[in-house]
Amino acid sequence: MARFRPPRGTKDLLGEDMRRHQKVTGMGKTIFHRYGFSQWATPIFEDTHVFARSLGESSDVVSKEMYTFEDRGGESLTLRPEGTAGVARALVSNSLTQALPQKIFYTGPMFRYERPQKGRFRQFHQIGAELIGAESPFRDAEIIAMARDFLVALGLGDDLRLELNTLGDKASRMAWREALVAYFRQHEDRLSEDSRSRLEINPLRILDSKAEQDRALLADAPAFDDYLNDESRTFWNELKAALEAFGVAFVENPRIVRGLDYYSHTVFEFVTDKLGAQGTVLAGGRYEGLVEEMGGPAVPCIGWAAGVERLAALIEAPVADVSDVAILPMGDAALLKAASISRSLRDSGLSVSIETRGNMKKRMDRIVQSGASHALFLGDDDLARDVVQLRHLASREQEEVPVADIVSVLERARAS
């Protein structure tokens, strides 16, 4: 008989893994609520052009990593590799461009065909937020503060550093881009093959290169700060002042870039050394052309995303949920009565397990190990008198309780 395994690059979320995952997303929802963000959910697959247009045909995600397929109707569809493009598409599709700002968050699976390695999967999960209609650098600072609060709430505040940069406005960026192209043209024979192709299409992405031969050239590359115009410099200074007002510490890192044309001004990453080599756990930036790419007006936005699996690997595993009450019926008639009692207890909000497997000692061992607070014994004599034997597991005290009173007795015990 065939033994099936999950597809390469995927992972089942069970037990502790699922509890960690739920802690990350649950804490995210708590923090988003404090900042007035509402949850959206977009389809797991979209028209391929949603991602090809938004991410750029030259990006590694589009050219190498997207799961693209043709459906039975001949349409080209793609499993979403990230969340922002679908959110921008949803804004336009649902005619919400006149109802700004929109403060939204999302969480769910994403898909990229890449070489599986530790902490990287072909199906992975992201949690992210977008502020659509971010009219000022103050809003950039606020959404970065929300990211900081989220990471602190997960217990990661001492292990992370916020790195911040500016890409300026389009005029500043284009002037810098021209200077970069001229510089790298002089050293084209020393660039990696990937970076030579990027030089033609997307030269800013050379700054992201991990190839040693490319990185050796970066120290003498033109610095963006020399190309910031007055408007961009004012935006940058206002952002830093707002972050200080929100109490967000940061360091400036001029090497943080985003290669896509619609990114502008603010880009940032929260990084940690706890994953071995320095790793980014949350990243984002301001973008201004994406909604327009989807057929809407030009709308300034700021957003960020984080990998749930990566965050889950950094946090303490939550304790497993346990039942408040375990019922131990003795005999078939008691089993049916246990069903009736469990319904009343569950309707009152208590968590209940009905233990039927094994002898009484094995059942009690499982209950004690589970961490349940009470055990409820039900035998033939109890049935005849319409009572149960209730044991308080912490104190080991036992009392006889009429079936009609069991809900109120347990509710009082839980309250105390």
TrEMBL record:
Q: InterPro entries of this UniProt entry?
A: aa-tRNA-synth_II, aa-tRNA-synth_II/BPL/LPL, Anticodon-bd, Anticodon-bd_dom_sf, His-tRNA-ligase, HisRS-like_core, HisRS/HisZ, HisRS_anticodon
Q: What subcellular compartments does it reside in? A: Cytoplasm
Span-the-membrane segments of this chain are none
Q: Which UniProt keywords apply?
A: Aminoacyl-tRNA synthetase, ATP-binding, Cytoplasm, Ligase, Nucleotide-binding, Protein biosynthesis
- Could you name the domain of life of the organism this protein comes from? Bacteria
Q: What GO terms are given for molecular function? A: ATP binding; histidine-tRNA ligase activity
Look up the EC number in the record and give it. Answer: 6.1.1.21
Q: Which reaction equation describes what this protein catalyses?
A: tRNA(His) + L-histidine + ATP = L-histidyl-tRNA(His) + AMP + diphosphate + H(+)
Cell wall biogenesis/degradation as a keyword of this entry, yes or no, is: no
Q: Which PROSITE patterns match?
A: AA_TRNA_LIGASE_II (PS50862)
- Might you name a Gene Ontology BP term for this protein? histidyl-tRNA aminoacylation
The chain positions of domain Aminoacyl-transfer RNA synthetases class-II family profile read 8-329
Where L-histidine binds, per the record, is at E82, G83, T84, R112, Q126, E130, R258, Y262, Y263
Any Gene Ontology CC annotation? cytoplasm
Which family does the similarity line name? Belongs to the class-II aminoacyl-tRNA synthetase family.
How it assembles, according to the record, is: Homodimer.
Write down what this protein is called: Histidine--tRNA ligase
Name the encoding gene, please: hisS
